[in-house]
Amino acid sequence: MSLDTAEKQKLIESHQIHATDTGSAEVQVAMLSERISKLSDHLQNNNHDFASRQGLLKMIGKRKRLLSYIKGKNQLKYNELVKKIGIRG
């Protein structure tokens, strides 16, 4: 359910703002979205994994807060990010 280093590096390279960017809000949202999709697949097969369900809800909340931060800073960048990741905004 966690991301391995190659997947993280691929996400960072596709969403980074500048060459040394590894922790901007856009990169964090991309990584959280990938972890959320993996964990939701896991939970469809394991209905009684309540600890993972709680972690999923926390990740969704964190992603929502980061997206609202990006939306407040730059609406255009928010729209591009939501479209690129493929989530409902």
Structural account:
The structure is a single chain. The chain is an all-alpha fold. It has helices at 5-15, 25-45, 50-73, 75-85. It has a domain at 25-85: Orthogonal Bundle (Helix Hairpins). The longest helix has 24 residues, at 50-73.
- Biggest pleated-sheet summary: none
Record field, number of beta strands: 0
Helix content: over 70%
Our measurement of the CA-to-CA distance between the termini, rounded to an integer number of angstroms, reads: 24 Å
Tally of helical runs: 4
CATH superfamily of one domain: S15/NS1, RNA-binding
**CATH C-level of one domain:** Mainly Alpha
User: So, CATH architecture of one domain?
Assistant: Orthogonal Bundle
> What integer value in Å does the Rg equal?
14 Å
Based on Cα principal axes, name the global outline.
globular
Could you tell me the mean pLDDT? 94
| Uncertain parts | none
Q: Which fold does the CATH topology of one domain refer to? A: Helix Hairpins
Oligomer status: single chain
Helix and strand succession? HHHH
Class by SSE composition = mainly alpha
List the helices and strands and how they pair.
Blueprint: H1 5-15, H2 25-45, H3 50-73, H4 75-85
Helix pairs in contact: 1-2, 2-3, 3-4
Q: What's a concise summary of this model?
A:
With about 90 residues, this protein is mainly alpha-helical.
Can you give keywords for this protein?
single chain; 89 residues; mainly alpha; Helix Hairpins; globular
